[in-house]
Design a protein that fits this description.
Layout (H helix, E strand, L loop, with lengths): L2 H7 L13 H18 L4 E3 L9 H5 L8 E7 L4 H18 L3 E5 L16 E10 L17 E2 L7 H11 L10 E5 L5 E5 L5 H16 L3 E3 L1
Parallel strand pairs: 5-6, 7-8
Antiparallel strand pairs: 1-2, 2-4, 3-4, 6-7
Helix pairs in contact: 1-4, 2-4, 4-6, 5-6
The structure holds flavin mononucleotide.
């Protein structure tokens, strides 16, 4: 499965089968995590066979069922941590999708007391990603009008920019808020900014990754 297909087929899945992640899928997932950590300096951890984080009221409220594996998105505290977590976390999500797994980003609705992960000095947990084999493949989210999410100035929209925007609109965002704007600058440059809301910096990293993967153009943060 190529990355474009993974972008199209990924939807949040909150109910999982009692089936362990092993073999080739596990190898691909672990390789993607190791590569992301190496490039970014993050400390993302795969936690397996640990159902505690998705027990209790919040997880129930979030309608999660059968979650026993998750990614703990941990990194050193800094003003860039949230966006970096979004960017690299989504890169892992798409690789997981391509390996036949399902995922759901989880910022709030997990059991904070029971989640298991390692925090080194100066680090913090940003959020989790539930991962495993879904009971189903999820379904497409309702989407904002794409025209609200970009600015071209007086420029025409290049085909690569349209491809990037379409991929960004398919990205997961907290509460499906889609609070981001991509701006086409001179010289084929693209910048992106968030228009606020909970986890909006994480969301910005996620949508930037989708845009870059589909358009082949690097995005700078404004
Ligand atoms: C940063 C972030 C935090 C999220 N937190 C939660 C959460 O706490 N509980 C939950 O059920 N879904 C959570 N989600 C999943 C979103 O609700 C979901 O991505 C959005 O509705 C779009 O749907 P889709 O992922 O199927 O495209 C989160 C998503 C993101 C990106």
């Amino acid at each position: 499965m190529d990355i474009q297909k993974a972008i199209e087929e990924r939807h949040s899945v909150r109910r999982f089968l009692d089936k362990p992640i092993e073999g080739e899928a596990l190898e691909r997932l672990e390789a993607a995590i190791a590569e992301a950590n190496r490039e970014s300096g993050l400390h993302i951890q795969l936690v397996r066979d640990e159902p505690g984080a998705f027990t209790g009221l919040l997880a129930h409220y979030g309608r999660f069922r059968g979650v026993s594996n998750y990614l703990a998105l941990v990194g050193r505290k800094s003003s860039e941590l949230e966006e970096t977590v979004g960017y690299y976390g989504e890169r892992i999500v798409l690789e997981a999708q391509a390996a036949g797994l399902n995922t759901c980003w989880v910022g709030g609705t997990f059991n904070h007391r029971k989640a298991r992960y390692q925090l080194d000095e100066g680090e913090k947990l940003v959020c989790l990603i539930a991962i495993g084999y879904g009971e189903n493949q999820g379904k497409p989210h309702r989407s904002k009008d794409m025209a609200k999410c970009y600015e071209l100035g007086s420029r025409q929209m290049p085909a690569w920019f349209a491809a990037g925007m379409e991929a960004a609109m398919l990205a997961p965002t907290a509460l499906n808020q889609q609070n981001f704007v991509f701006m086409l600058q001179d010289g084929q440059m693209v910048s992106a900014s968030s228009t606020g809301g909970p986890f909006s910096k994480v969301d910005l990293g996620i949508v930037k990754y989708h845009f870059e993967a589909a358009s082949g153009h690097k995005v700078i943060t404004q």
